[in-house]
Every structure is written in structure tokens, then in C-alpha cells.
Amino acid sequence: MENDLQFMRLALEFAKRGEGFVEPNPMVGCVLVKNGNIIGKGFHTKFGEPHAEVEALRDAKKCYGEESIAGSTCYVTLEPCSHYGKTPPCTSVLQSSGIRRIVAAMRDPNPAVNGQGLQILRDAGLEITEHVLEKEARFLNAPYLTLLEQHRPWIIAKWAMTLDGRLASRTGSSQWISGEASRNIVHHLRGRMDAVMIGSQTALRDNPELTVRLDEIAPRTPIRIVLDSKAALTSEYRLVQTARQVPVLLVVNPNASEKQIKILQDAGCEILPLLSENTESDTESKNTEHDYRNRTEVLMKHLAQRKITNLLVEGGKQLFGTLFDMQLIDEVHVFIAPKLIGGEESYPVIGGTGLSEMKQAWQLEPPEIQILGQDVYIHGRIHHTPHT
Question: How far is the C-alpha of 319 from the C-alpha of 94, rounded, in Å?
């Protein structure tokens, strides 16, 4: 039905408003309709707060009275929950509301729901319509689905580069490649992330703080993650100096200096000694590509267990290269400055093995392109072309 599509599109627009606030929960929007008219609307506003269906019911009661809800249709972008979590199950609220019909964009793959919510409502006599704009709903909640189905965060790669594709000069100089407008976008991007991650060389070379600096309050304060295998950071670095204000997680080899680890822990850093899977000995630090990949898989599982839904990766080339070769990058945000620095020893963006054929090249679907001052800002989700 055309009306179903119209009202579900509106529900999806409302759901988007929760981005950055609701994770690790999904973004959900809801619209209540009676006799072709919208009588209530709502969305999940913040993790731990009432779900979209409850907000829409409250809106309808406030605007039109509780009696208006009887016989209405509920358009919701995700299957209503059927279990007690931070809030009571939405199925109970919907059953007692007098709603006649539920239109859901998609089922919730959460094992605690996964079709049970809709079945409960169906058994209670409500008319159920499924899969309305399901593709759009899955696109909206791709980070949530990735966490549930692939047991890893949604990975967003961000970098600023010169026109000749360099992150820094041969001496490591990189501040600033992009302009102020681009850097402001980066802070907004960080402000909706669960975590920001860099490699040790980027941390040592750039001495970044990786905090969110905005005039307004950001939705989230991301944990800062550094892949610092040798525990090489010291108290001279901003990340360590600010560890008690904004969390820092240092991922180290188990054989890193105990003395240095103690210093970093005393400064407020959390230390994660990370072994590769099926590794029985940590007496030697391997640096093979296989080891990088294996350790990355272990780290991603760990971050998923911590409910890290959106992970922003800001460099460097080895980290980007490993994630690229493993096809783990889901989205990119690139700032291109009209500058040239040249040099074979200057820093490229992505290391690793890379692709052998141009026909295998990743594409953005669709790319979004903006002009920010003198910079070109290109961002979008990745369409992976399978390769071996």
C-alpha cells in the first residue's frame, strides 16, 4: 500500500534523530495513524529511555486523547521488543493500547526478540504487516546489525590528505592538512562515535588528543583506543595526560614492559594485553601480516563485547591497510586539501597488500561530495567487491 510506504518513510526520518544517542541500541522511529491522519509520532531518543512506540503513544494521548488510539495503525521501523531490558517490553504496551494493526519495516535480529515480538502481537489478534521498506531500515541500522550479526563494530575510516594522497610529509609533519571547516566536521563525527582508534605511530608522530571539541554538547564521549604494542606512549603525550578526563584504552602485546604499563595505568590508561587467537606463547612479538589480522579479529570481538557500535579509525597506514585487506572498513570520510608535498618517503594513506586489479576497487554507494572552504569532503559507505 502506498500509504504504508509514506508513513514508514516518515518513521525512518524520525528514527534517524536518535543517531549517536541510542547506541548500542538501534535507531527506531514510530508513527501512529488513524483514518489516514497522523495522531502520534516518536523515536528512541537516548539509550535507557523509552522506546519509539512508547513515545508515539504518549504523543497521541497528549495531542488527541487516549481514546484516539483505538483502531489505529502503528508504523515502526523495527520489530517491537518482547523482553524486559532497560525498559518494559513494547509488545505489552501495544497490546493494551487498542492499536489494531502493526506495520514493521524489519525484524529485530536480537536473540531476545527475533520474531517473537511480532508473533506475540499476532497471537493477541493484531494485524501484522512486515518488510515495508526493509532495505532502508537495514541501511539505517547497519552499525547495530553489524554488531549483532558479525560481532564487531561498524568501522568508519577518516583521514585528511593532500592532493597527492599523503597523510604527512617525510618528516612526519601533518598539521594542518585540512582547514578549520573540515576539522569541525571531524569533531561532529567523533561526537557520535563509541570509540576512536589510531595506531601507535600516528599517536607518537601527531601527539593527538582525539577528544570532541564542539560549542554544543556532543551526543557521546568516545573512548580513545591506541594500538600501542610496545606501550611506547609516555606522560608527555596528550592522550596520557587527559586519560583521567576521557577514557584511553591501550592495546599492548603481553610482553610489553611491565614498568611502562604500570606508569600508564597510574596515569589513568586502561591496558588491554592482546594475544592472537590460538597463541600459546607470548614470549615473542610477531609482526607478520597473519598476526596483524589475527590480533585485529580478536580486538574486534573484544570491542563488540563492550558494545562498541561505531568505531572511528583515524590512521595510520598499517592500521588502514590491515582493515582494508580484511574488508572491515564499512564507511569512509575523506578530506582532500589542495596541497602537494611529494616525496617517496612521505606517508601514504593505506598500506597493506591492496588490490591487484582496478575492477576490484571499492566504491562508495553513493558518494556524497561537499566543498568545505578549499577542501573537498567525500564520504559514503563502501561497496566491497569480493577478492582473494
Answer: 47
